[in-house]
Amino acid sequence: MGQLNERSAEELLASVDAPAVDVPVALARFRGVVTSRGVSAASSGRSGWFSRVARLPRLPVAVAATLVLVIAFGATGLADSFLTIFQPQRFATVQVTPGDMRGLPDLSAYGTMSEPTHGPAVTVADAAAASAAAGFTVLTPARLPGAATGGRFQVVPRTTATFTFSAEAARATAAKAGRTAPPIPAGIDGTTLLIEGGPTVLQTYGAQPADGTMPANMPTLVVAQARVPSVNSNGASFEQVRDYLLAQPGVSPVLAAELRAVSDPTRTLPIPVPAGQANSKTVAVHGSSGVFVGDSTGIGSAVIWQQGGIVFGLAGTLTEDELIATANSLR
Amino acid sequence: MLLKKVEVETLSVRARAVSHPADPGLPAAFERLFSSEYRVVVGIAHRILGDRDAAEDVAQEVFLSFYGRHSADADYAAAWLRSAAAHSALNHLRGARRRTGHELAAPPAGALPDPSRAAEDAERLAHVRAALLRMQPKSAAAVALRASGLSYAEVAEAVDIKGDQIGTFLRRAQEALRKEMAKWDS
Question: Which pTM value belongs to this model?
Answer without folding.
Answer: 0.51
